[in-house]
Each structure stands twice: as structure tokens, then as C-alpha cells.
Amino acid sequence: MLSELVYLSFRKSSCSDDEVQNILEHSRTNNGQQDITGVLIYSKEKFLQVLEGDQDKILALYNKIKEDERHDRALMVSNRPITERHFPSWQMAEKAINTDDYSFLSAMNDQEQVQFKALLNGENQNNATKMIARLFT
Fold first, then answer.
1. Alpha-carbon torsion, ordered 48, 52, 53, 55, to 10 deg
2. Is 34 helix (H, G, I), strand (E, B) or coil?
3. pLDDT digits (tens, 9 = 90+) for 36-47
4. Quick one: which H or E segment has residue 66?
5. Is a pLDDT exceeding 60 seen at residue 102?
6. CA distance linking residue 65 with residue 49, whole number of Å
């Protein structure tokens, strides 16, 4: 079953920018082999990721991520079946952000901006993927 999993984790201070690039390189290779797509949004302190693919495969990947020494306190924001992918051609897109000082370049209203900021703070939000996808459209 085609599914989507969104999680937030805290980036350990030992996880350098070079390590993030290693994560992205390996993700692009491995995710392509597993037919997993998605996007990784990251800052100096946090990771927010959307994974799309077969339910069992993305759950297995999330379980690996929870054990990864570069992540701390992984929190599953959502896990649900979907009928189509939001990121169909991206084995792993990326976007670096500064979670202390950023502006919204997409047409997000004030309520959506508040919801997105809450999501970055680890609070469970509905429609998380729609908000994330809007950052890339």
C-alpha cells in the first residue's frame, strides 16, 4: 500500500554539515532502489522528513532512522495511506532552513505559518505534507 510517513527529529550536535550531505547521498541511492521518494528539510538543530512508498519499506526506514546516531528524539508526525505521491521524482529532495529566523516565500496564510512553526517544534499537525509540499511549489 502506498503510504506517507512524516517525522521530526533533533539533529545531534555531532552531526556535521558533511554528515548531512552523506545522509542525502545515501538516501538518494538507497531510496531509489526501494522506490521511496520524499524530502528532507533540515536546520542546525532539526530534521523534518517526508517519506513516500510502500508502507512496510518506509516504516523499516523510519525504524533505522530512530536508531541512527545522528538523530535524537525522532517523533512520527503522521503515517497514512496516500493515493499519489507529492514528490514522485525525488528520491530525496532537500532544503536547508534556519529555524530561528526564516520567512515564508510561498503563499501560506498566517494560520498555516503558525501550524508549520508548531510542526518544526515537534507538535503533531494535520496536513503536514501539504504544508511541506507548498514550500516546493
1. 60
2. helix
3. 998 888 989 999
4. helix 55-67
5. no
6. 11
pLDDT tens, 20-35?
A: 999 988 888 898 899 9
Residue 27 in grid coordinates = 538516501
Task: With CA atoms as reference, report the closest residue to 116 among 3, 4, 8, 5.
Answer: 8
pLDDT at 137 over 70: no
Does an H or E element contain 94, and which?
Answer: strand 93-96
Strand 37-42 versus strand 93-96 pairing type = parallel
Query: Residue 53's beta-bridge partner residues?
Result: 3
Q: What angle do CA 19, 28, 41 make, to 5 degrees?
A: 60
Please list, residue by residue across 8-42, b when 16 or more beta carbons sit within 10 angstroms of its beta carbon and e when fewer do: bbebeeebeeeebeebbeebeeebeebebbbbbbb
**pLDDT tens by residue, 103-116:** 555 566 777 667 66
